[in-house]
Write a structure and sequence with these properties.
The complex is a heterodimer of chains A (about 550) and B (about 180). Chain A is built from nine helices and 33 strands. Chain A is an alpha+beta fold and about 550 residues long. Chain A has a 15-stranded mixed sheet that branches. In chain A, strands 18, 21, 22, 24, 29, 30, 31 and 33 form an eight-stranded antiparallel sheet that branches. Chain A has an eight-stranded antiparallel sheet with strand order 19-20-23-32-25-26-27-28, with no helix packed on it. The radius of gyration of chain A is 31 Å and the shape is extended. The two termini of chain A are about 40 Å apart. With about 180 residues, chain B is an all-alpha fold. Chain B starts with 13 loop residues before the first helix and ends with a helix. Chain B is globular and about 55 Å long. In chain B, helix 1 packs antiparallel against helix 2 (about 45-60) and helix 7 (about 145-150) crosses helix 8. Chain B has helices spanning about 15-40, 45-60, 70-90, 95-105, 115-125, 130-140, 145-150, 155-180. Classes of the chains: A alpha+beta (about 550), B mainly alpha (about 180). Chains A and B meet through helix 1, helix 2, helix 3 and strand 8 of A and helix 1, helix 2, helix 4, helix 5 and helix 6 of B.
């Protein structure tokens, strides 16, 4: 079969446009021909990736111009398709996609499906839903029975009421402002516009009058209602009715109310849930702290900027290396600002403008050096993008940079001339690309002037090793992170003007949340450990 | 605010193992869904099959050995679910069971799924505005080609041509990006 015909048939398959004859033709070809099968997977893989990719793009607001046109296609298993045995357990139904809230009404007219959702899933880290597994964040939830087997979920009703439900739980989202709770515990937050939000349990009905409350419906034992703010009305299943205000709580035994202490701490708060969502990040941060501490204590560490434990208004960056040189206690942050690093709560330095830099000094000459930095490039690279640059204008000068094509490069001045020709450079193939923008990567380069080698590592993997032909020790002194501290009007540097701004303006655009400079070669294992935090969990 | 930890079955109990397997599924379900979509291209049908796969994966959790390839195991179950769904849908215009079995022999390893999704995401920006809208309606709105056509005022055939073209653009862009990213 000709390639064009095969491709045409595969696309028709993906778009549900095969005729019966086409289907037979394609099937026969797939059975008979390996190359056809390979072509099939190549084309259909993209089809499989697209829903996820488009959804993520939508979530990140990459193409907001289409957001208002996106309406959810509720995905619900028609019960008739289910084997009888499963019918009784209550199907969790959810839409996979979301609409932009406020614009719904104006676009509803053209949409062929009626939106029946009553609530949105705000977040549900670690949640496992019966029959369903995970439900994507921001999914719209159709009315019906949901069973939460593990984790916790925050649900926002259309009325504006929110509740947090903790597993194990079973509930029924009845309408925009009503839920039934058969099992589990929920805490509710009801804004004024959602007054009247109702939770019905087998033994009590709670009507909220604009407040925050909690309900426990244990598998055995009495149900409890707690009020944290405002007022609720509670009606027992056998007739009694009570108003509860802030700080009050009751349990219901055989229709009778018994006062109990209100215990807000028993219920998961919205903040608690958000924190749980980031607990993975916290674990990684804790692990990183341990490794960073070890690196700071290493006697060979000359400079270690951890970007941690400092205030956001600090204009000096602390060198955490324990055996640092007396002159290298801190670095000046010039122009650059504080930002968030690899994990929530981790500090980083953000470089944006051409003048942004971190300037510091370490005297001396070194035979061996390790440079390690975790960086996040935030704009397509310029011609040269400085990571660490010295400015001695003499033998042993260092240039650690990313080139426009995305190569990581380390250059050492091994000859005495006054221009760039006396540099020897070892660079990797392109390791940065557009796909890497906004993504953290840990770069490390080891210079061994005795052996004459430069070894580059990206995220802990060795990607390049090259040789230097001439011998020279590295000379440090004044250095800059994220920029190149040359003065154009200094006669020593005027020659750089000939190259134009692309040559002399080498500022880095992005974030750096850790930088270390050591006077020994870190081993590949050490570099891997520092670069692959959290990898083991994947 | 302190909160009671969610009740967990005892470690090593069958229930705990099942929960572990369900967690694995949740973690990898995008890969499984992508696999299902290749064989059963309708987004709604694929979503149904994904749910059925989850049920079977849960029920058969005991037969999954920790340390073996979970995605491969789940995809095998997904393939049987696809075959079941096809029998139910009884669509003469779909590829045959034999073709699906043959394809299963050559499933590419779903390596670097996240990188690939990221690459697709970046490449979406390369599409012309109209192509992007069509991709959006089809893959985010879940519309059929006919319904996409109604939205943009085109015939279904023209939508299909545009989609095939858009997917080709994306495919070469993704290949390029992944090659560059090493």
């Amino acid at each position: 079969m000709k390639t064009e015909r095969l491709t045409e048939l595969i696309h028709a398959h993906l778009d549900g446009a095969l005729s019966a004859e086409d289907a037979g033709e394609l099937s026969a070809e797939l059975v008979a021909n390996t190359a056809a099968r390979r072509a099939f997977w190549e084309h259909s893989a993209l089809h499989g990736l697209l829903p996820e990719a488009v959804h993520l793009a939508w979530l990140s607001g990459v193409t907001p111009q289409y957001a208002e046109k996106i309406v959810a296609l509720p995905i619900q298993l028609p019960p008739r398709r289910w084997p009888g045995i499963l019918r009784g357990i209550g199907l969790a139904a959810a839409a996979c996609f979301v609409i932009a809230g406020g614009l719904w009404s104006s676009t509803q007219s053209w949409w062929p499906w009626r939106d029946r959702s009553v609530a949105t899933l705000v977040r549900a880290p670690d949640a496992i839903w019966e029959t369903r597994g995970a439900i994507a964040r921001d999914s719209r939830l159709l009315p019906g029975r949901y069973r939460l087997n593990a984790g916790a979920a925050e649900i926002r009703f259309r009325s504006g009421a929110r509740f947090i439900v903790e597993a194990p739980a079973e509930m029924d989202l009845s309408n925009n402002n009503t839920a039934r709770l058969y099992l589990g515990q929920v805490s509710g937050f009801v804004p004024p516009e959602a007054r009247g939000f109702t939770v019905i349990t087998p033994s009590l009905t709670l009507v909220d009058l604009g407040t925050a409350f909690g309900i426990k419906m244990p598998p055995v034992g009495p149900a409890e209602a707690h009020v944290f703010e405002g007022e609720v009305s509670v009606k027992a299943d056998v007739g009694g009715k009570r108003s509860l205000v802030r700080g009050e709580a009751v349990k219901i035994v055989n229709g009778d109310f018994t006062d109990i202490p209100s215990r807000p701490e028993d219920f998961l708060s919205a903040e608690g849930l958000a924190a749980r969502e980031s607990s993975v990040a916290k674990r990684h941060l804790a692990k990183w702290h341990g490794l960073a501490e070890r690196l700071s204590r290493d006697p060979a560490t000359l400079v270690h900027f951890t970007c941690e434990g400092q205030e956001r208004y600090d204009t000096a960056l602390r060198n955490d290396a324990v055996s640092r040189h007396a002159d290298a206690h801190t670095a000046m942050i010039i122009g650059a600002t504080w930002a968030e690093g690899r994990w929530p709560g981790k500090g980083a330095i953000l470089f944006r403008q051409s003048g942004d830099r971190v300037r510091f000094e370490v005297p001396g000459k070194y035979k061996t050096l390790t440079l390690l930095a975790s960086v996040c490039l935030e704009a397509p690279p310029h011609e040269f993008n400085a990571l660490l640059m010295t400015e001695n204008h003499s033998l042993g000068d260092l240039r650690w940079q990313i080139f426009r094509e995305g190569n990581l490069a380390l250059a050492l001045r091994t000859g005495p001339a006054s221009d760039d020709r006396q540099f020897e450079t070892v660079k990797t193939k392109a390791i940065m690309s557009e796909a890497m923008l906004g993504r953290w990567v840990t770069l490390a380069s080891v210079l061994d002037t005795e052996a004459g080698t430069v070894t580059h590592y990206v995220d802990g993997e060795q990607v390049e090793q090259g040789m230097l032909e001439r011998k020279a020790e590295a000379q440090l002194n004044a250095m800059e992170l994220g920029n190149w501290g040359i003065q154009l009007d200094d006669p020593r540097w005027t020659w750089t003007k000939a190259g134009g701004p692309a040559f002399y303006d080498r500022h880095f655009v992005g974030r750096i949340d850790q930088f270390a400079l050591l006077s020994r070669a870190l081993s590949p294992e050490e570099i891997r450990a520092h670069s692959q935090i959290g990898e083991a969990e994947r | 605010m302190p909160h009671p930890s969610p009740s967990e079955p005892n470690a090593n109990s069958p229930a705990s193992h099942q929960l572990q397997v369900q967690r694995l599924f949740v973690k990898h379900q995008s890969v499984v869904k992508a696999y299902i979509l290749s064989l059963l291209p309708s987004l709604t049908d694929a979503e149904d099959v994904l749910q059925e796969t989850f049920l079977t994966v849960s029920a058969k959790a005991g037969t999954f050995e920790e340390g073996t390839n979970f995605v491969a195991w789940a995809c095998t179950i997904a393939r049987f679910k696809v075959l079941e769904a096809r029998r139910r849908l009884n669509n003469p215009r779909a590829i045959t069971d034999e073709a699906i079995d043959a394809l299963a022999e050559d499933v590419p390893e779903p390596l670097f799924f996240e990188e690939q999704v990221d690459a697709v995401r970046n490449c979406l920006e390369r599409l012309a505005p109209r192509a992007k809208q069509i991709v959006w309606l089809r893959y985010h709105g879940g519309l059929s080609c006919e319904d996409v056509g109604r939205q943009v005022g085109w015939g279904a055939a023209a939508v299909r041509v545009a989609l095939a073209k858009a997917r080709n653009v994306l495919r070469s862009c993704v290949e390029f990006q992944l090659r560059r990213a090493v």
